[in-house]
Amino acid sequence: MPVALAPSQALYIGMEVVIAVFSVLGNVMVVWAVKINKSLRDTTFCFIVSLALADIAVGALVIPLAITISIGLQTHFYSCLMVACTVLVLTQSSILALLAIAIDRYLRVKIPTSYKRVVTKQRAAVAVVVCWTVAFIVGLTPMLGWNNLWRLQQNGSLKDDLIITCQFENVISMDYMVYFNFFGWVLPPLLLMLLIYAEIFYMIHKQLNKKACTTSHADPNRYYDKELKLAKSLALVLFLFAVSWLPLHVINCITLFCPTCDKPLFLLYIAILLTHGNSAVNPIVYAFRIKKFRDAFLKIWKQYFCCKDGPAMLTQTSEKGRKEDDNPNGNRNPKLLPPTGPAEVEAPSPQSNALPPKPPMEHNNI
């Protein structure tokens, strides 16, 4: 027999479906963009891909499960608990991916000349594995016993067959959600990332001011200008994550510390939609704020959806761009520079057949 849905519940389910579609399509585009554009395959974008995979799982797995839960499905206690833990694992993986991105950008600005020697792709891959491992440990902790099974058995609301109405608060302990999850693994990383980005912006502005006063070379300023632009984009991703997830955690705190307080159902729906909607907004931020992603998205759209032959995608950064990224202090390789005067490049003798050096390729800024 079909379940009759209230208007607010039907609206909630409809919005969840829209968010799921945009979340999956948008983040698949992110992974696709990194695949076709080798210049996006540095360590930062490895962490961005990890974040995108978590967001794809939210759209393809978590949201359908959330819709199932919202209609009051009768399930076994541990089946419902596994659904809730899946949400927790993906949430924690997103937080840790954002933290890894922040640390990566901090090292990029703090040690620019030795960054690529310290932060290798192998170490970035290990960091991604560590993030997901910690996310599974934190998210699956309720499966090990920190759940509401004992409480439900004590108050007599759980039968011997362990069949319950599958709702998040029925199976997940609010002690776990507030003291362990929020105070232990959500709030501290968010505060740490806030401090890291504040330090990144401080160091970049300090370097820009110092370079403007001490040198006429444009390369150091260009490097730090690029880092400032990317840091602003990633800080925006962090800000949207905090805005999306904090309301639900505040509701959890109210549930724990004020059990008799009234919590309107529509507020809970809004908080849940915000958390799921965060998975759909990141590709939009990348498209509008990061040029390489925008170019890759346009290429994918034109070539694969509109069946048009787009311009060839640059598959790697130019040699000049790599030199500037490795050495932002202006020590450029003279072999890559055009002659600027007789003091810099020796004029070829009449017997010489050497061609004048070619100007360097333009560096693709993010």
From TrEMBL:
- Please list the residue ranges annotated as the G-protein coupled receptors family 1 profile domain: 26-286
Q: Which GO terms describe its cellular component?
A: dendrite; plasma membrane; synapse
Keywords on record: Cell membrane, Disulfide bond, G-protein coupled receptor, Glycoprotein, Lipoprotein, Membrane, Palmitate, Receptor, Transducer, Transmembrane, Transmembrane helix
Xref: CDD domains: 7tmA_Adenosine_R_A1 (cd15071)
* TM region positions: 12-34, 46-70, 76-103, 124-146, 182-202, 230-246, 266-288
Q: Where is this region: Disordered?
A: 317-366
As for subcellular location, the record says: Cell membrane
Query: Which spans of this chain does the record mark as coiled coil?
Result: none
GO MF terms held by the record: G protein-coupled adenosine receptor activity
Question: What membrane topology does the annotation report for this chain?
Answer: Multi-pass membrane protein
Entries under InterPro entries matching the protein? Adeno_A1_rcpt, Adenosn_rcpt, GPCR_Rhodpsn, GPCR_Rhodpsn_7TM
Pfam families from the UniProt entry = 7tm_1 (PF00001)
Purpose: Receptor for adenosine. The activity of this receptor is mediated by G proteins which inhibit adenylyl cyclase.
Which family would the database say this protein is a member of? Belongs to the G-protein coupled receptor 1 family.
Q: What is this protein called?
A: Adenosine receptor A1
Q: Which organism is it from?
A: Esox lucius (Northern pike)
